Amino acid sequence: MKFKKYILIISLVFLFFLTTKSSGATSLKGIENFPESYKPYLNELKSKYPNWEFTALYTGLDWNTVINNEYGNDSNLVPLSYTDEWKCTTPGKYNVEIDSGWVNASKNAVEYTMDTRNFLNPVRIFQFEKQTYDETVNTKDGIERILYGTEFYKRNVEYYNSSGNKVILEEKYSDLIWDAAVYSGVSPYNLASRIRQEVGPFITHSSISGRVEGYEGLLNFYNIGATSSVEDLGAIKNGLRYARNGNNASQETQANFLLPWDSPAKAITGGAVFIGSSYISVGQYNLYLQKFDVNNERKTSLYWHQYMTNCLAPYSESSSIYKAYNTSGVLNSSLAFVIPIYDNMPEEICERPDIRQEDFEKDNTSVYADVSTVLNVRTGPGSSYDILTTISREEVMTRIGRGVQNGERWDKVRLNDGLVGYVFQSYIKEYKEEVEEPPKDEYYVKFDNTLRVEENVISNLNYEDLSVESIKNLIDTNFSIEIYNNKQKLLDNTENVGTGSKLILKDTEGTIKYEYVFILYGDVNGDGIIDSLDSLVIQKHLLEIKLITDEYLLKSANIQKTGEEPTSLDILKIQKHILEIKFIEQ
């Protein structure tokens, strides 16, 4: 009997060892060292950005073991507003708020967000970027570009101190973020995107207001220690408790992290030191690894040391980093990405929970793109999904799933290089059909399938890429093209198209033949960006401080598309878009 007890104890110890300590992570640099299912996507990225480097992090962890440890324990949450497919359906947990507005994620949601193959595109790849400070890449201008659309953008720092007095500093928020990056060694772009993710677009957020009762003067820009709680403002109060003394940390720890965080400079810099020493230096050196504790470097346990509970946080924050890099012109720099890989991963990439498998019939048909210019291949069945690549009309692909959805139909296709994505069904034909060439001896215009053209109005714009050059690439015509903004200024190829911008098509004699107006729902001031300034325009309209008189700007403010005046619900939709909780449907 005693012998059996010893066997049981040994077995339990061995099981504990397996679940807390991996057999050792191995890093191998180069696309050739990745599994075959990764290579088509990485080769596509490398063809666009030859200076990027990719490292495979073989975690040595079993896929099913990882998912079982991450699912169903309150460590992975999704917004309550998400569709049911995203939510845990375990009895007693479905739609039960773990934190205000947040519920447990479904197993499918955890699998989707942890399958690293889902995010090998130019936008979402940045959740795998190494997050160390690099003076050759990082700039203050880049920080400001990440903060654009928030109240932190080009704004002097202001806060309330412990005495309840408002303090306004000469430094801007970008100055403090830059200083924090230099001091801590953490990328300032990472810090800026974290602030945007954690406290949103408003400087009045309770975590950084300094005005929470009982925690006056305390600030926590990264919501460090803000664990979930059912108490009113529970998570925020937990974060402010940490800001006071690190939850009764040692004097040495408090000194290292510049605690208490009773000023923005101490909170932003001290928090950056915490992130650097607590995460980046222990093997959690990118957004993905900070969310999912799966790298055993210099640690003795797994799955618990996780910075955030929002399982889509790396997905959202990567977009902010991409935008900053794109607008500041550093995408072609030498950037390094480390991508985790698990043992026994599914052969097929785990789909988003809200992509319904019953919306596709199995198929194996050769098809081609029936477009005059290029066809976008996307990560999901809709124009709001990220673009994986573009293909020309000459390329042939295999349709592996025929869309049978209601309304717009999208097909699932596999390209010749193995890349799998989605294309708009109306713009592909079976390969046996002949390709119709546009007329050669007369004027013509054909718009890409991603655009919606109704009479003289063009909508369904991709809000992440609105440059004049990108818009022109979506129009096949032998007319000359000019695009003006809503103030009648001729735009160059690098400037953004926004609501009220006009597309002018002219013949060889300079005569205007066609004129179209663009609408980007949520872009109420016409600058081509959806941000807090647009919320302010609607607020002023509702309060009759300054009415929106332009027909198209007013239409873009009615995000609900009811044809009526905008309401506070439209403001809420803009706020959710900014926070990347739910993007505005164009």
Summarize this, please?
The protein is an alpha+beta fold and 586 residues long. It contains 17 helices and 22 strands.
Describe this structure in words.
- The chain is an alpha+beta fold.
- It folds into four domains: about 1-125 and about 330-345, no CATH class; about 135-285, no CATH class; about 355-430, SH3 Domains (SH3 type barrels), CATH 2.30.30; about 445-585, Dockerin domain (Type 1 dockerin domain), CATH 1.10.1330.10.
- It contains 17 helices and 22 strands.
- A hairpin with a 2-residue loop joins strand 4 (about 95-100) and strand 5 (about 100-105).
- Helix 5 (about 140-145) runs parallel beside helix 7 (about 190-200), helix 6 runs parallel beside helix 11 and helix 15 runs antiparallel to helix 17 (about 570-580).
- The longest helix is centred in the first third of the chain and has 19 residues, at about 1-20.
- It is globular.
- The N and C termini lie far apart (about 70 Å).
Mean pLDDT: 88
Give me the Rg, rounded: 25 Å
The main β sheet shows up as: 5 strands, antiparallel
Low-confidence stretches: 1-22
Give the termini distance in whole angstroms.
Answer: 69 Å
Tags for this model:
single chain, 586 residues, alpha+beta, SH3 type barrels, 4 domains, five-stranded antiparallel beta sheet, five-stranded mixed beta sheet, 17 helices
Set out the fold topology.
Layout: H1 2-20, E1 26-29, H2 39-48, E2 53-62, H3 63-70, E3 77-79, E4 97-99, E5 102-104, H4 107-114, H5 140-147, E6 156-160, E7 166-172, H6 173-184, H7 188-199, H8 206-209, H9 234-245, H10 251-256, H11 264-278, H12 287-291, H13 313-328, E8 336-343, E9 360-369, E10 374-378, E11 387-392, E12 396-403, E13 410-414, E14 420-424, E15 428-430, E16 445-447, E17 452-454, E18 457-459, H14 468-472, E19 475-477, E20 480-484, E21 502-506, E22 512-518, H15 532-542, H16 551-557, H17 568-578
Parallel strand pairs: 2-8, 18-22
Antiparallel strand pairs: 1-2, 3-5, 4-5, 6-7, 9-12, 9-15, 10-11, 12-13, 13-14, 16-19, 17-18, 20-21, 21-22
